[in-house]
Specification:
By secondary structure, this protein is α/β, with parallel strands linked by helices. It is built from 9 helices and 16 strands. It has an 8-stranded mixed beta sheet with strand order 5-10-2-1-13-15-16-14, sandwiched between helices. Strands 3-4 form a two-stranded antiparallel sheet. A hairpin with a 6-residue loop joins strand 11 and strand 12. Helix 3 packs across helix 4 and helix 6 packs parallel to helix 8. The protein is globular and about 65 Å long.
Length: 305
Amino acid sequence: MSTARKHTALPKAQTLIEALPWLTRHHGKTVVIKFGGNAMIDEELKAAFAQDVVFLRHAGLKPVVVHGGGPQISAQLDKQGLVSEFKAGLRVTTPEAMDVVRMVLAGQVQRELVGLLNQHGPLAVGMTGEDAHTITAVKHVPQIDGEPVDIGRVGEITAIETGAIEALLDDGRIPVISSIARSADDGHVYNVNADTAAAALAAALGAETLMVLTDVEGLYADWPASDEVISQLTASELERLLPELSSGMVPKMEGCLHAVRNGVHTARVIDGRVQHAILLEIFTDEGIGTMVVPDTETEDEGGAQ
């Protein structure tokens, strides 16, 4: 081998060695990944996401993918002449709109993601929270100015049944789950926030890590005055910050908080606009996002934990 070739390959070996502690600790463990934001729309980012997830699976981890589909739902509602109205930061979901939500999530977004993953082998299996009672919900009634507001078929998770997911994981599959749930009370199907669903599933599965892909670099220390990203914080530190966060970040960070308070070892918010964001977060000492750890944890900063 020429000297030049040796030199070009060396950084690759270095990166793999950096990943070794992470791979060792996570071997055989479940990792729940919330797929969303720009990564859902950009073709190259979608393909890179699928490669990352398959890589985790082949590296001995058990990835579970949870997704929503806000932009795709809005586009389809527009196409059908159904108006998207938002109250308390949540989409008002009429029964007609719920049919569209279900069709888009289970019939479009999930199918495409399963297809991308399965270009690499017979790995991915799509399901929704309705399947095998995986996610059960009740009607969510938010308060605005102290008054309850009806926002239609938007659900609040009441129970998680992990049996079907665990069976797929035991079979070496990658479950891809749409954030739809059915109510045990009224039999209706509900749209549930995908960040919240991913966090609830991570806790119920006893996952090692929850990863939330988003359209920002991570949690900013003092936005908008500064674009410095907090690389790590504890659950209590995050709880103190929650009231100051922008509305879009609240369900993501509440999800991270719920996960680490309920047995998940780390929760990470990472920039889904970066190609191979998952591998960068995992396989480099710096990491590229914000990591939330339980209050009792003291870890070195960075990705390769």
